[in-house]
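Below is a typical protein record.
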Amino acid sequence: MQTLVPLAARLYRPLEPYAYTLIRVATGAIFVPHGVLKLFFGGAASAMGYAFGVLELVGGLALVLGLYVRPIALLLIVDALTVIAANFAKGWLWTRGGVQYHTFLLGMLLAIALGGAGRYALQKSLEERWPAIGYALARVWFALLIVPSGYEKVFSDGATRIATGNVLKTGFYPPLFWAWVVALLELAGMILLALGLGTRVIAFMMAVELGVIVVTIQMPNGYFWTSRGTEFALVLFLVCLAFVFGGGGRYSLDRKIGREF
């Protein structure tokens, strides 16, 4: 694999083996606060709620540590599907209580169920094919989740809407220019990410966008997604950072062409 920017390769090459691990750790970690909330701060209103709290706390930690990864991922898939079923009538957008966030978690859990623990785990696996498949699924799922937002911004006047809203809050000027940068990144950029073409560049740009969203827009709302806090954008940022580390991976156009940044 030839690198177009050798200097950049010196930065990400040492981190590349940890890309899949970062996806596993970030996905597991995101469940832990919900388990704590349900078990110790009144978040569970029933025996089923306590059961899911135990699953989210213990299961999330198990994924982080790399213990019983495949069965834990399958159990957490049930958790995610339960939340999706409960909120299905609210539509797609997570900001309106819809299923967007848990659909993302569902995809990451499916990728982990396929990929297994990977090399860097307490119950590590030296297999290489399945983590590569899981990584590819995570990359494609991530991209396809963002594409509808990009489509709305490009074709349904969404760029103008965010130019007078969230982009203005960030302090980026001129806001309409940056709104179109975001719109094209979320549409054309995510199509390229799904294909695994120019992966690191696209993932880096998306990580910058998500970092700005976390710090300037969502941080004042706290952590949990139910209050429009940082949770969703934070896990998106971490998974996107994994794509910066790992590039397109084994199953990508970058690898097929034999060139990447």
Observations:
- The mean pLDDT is 94.
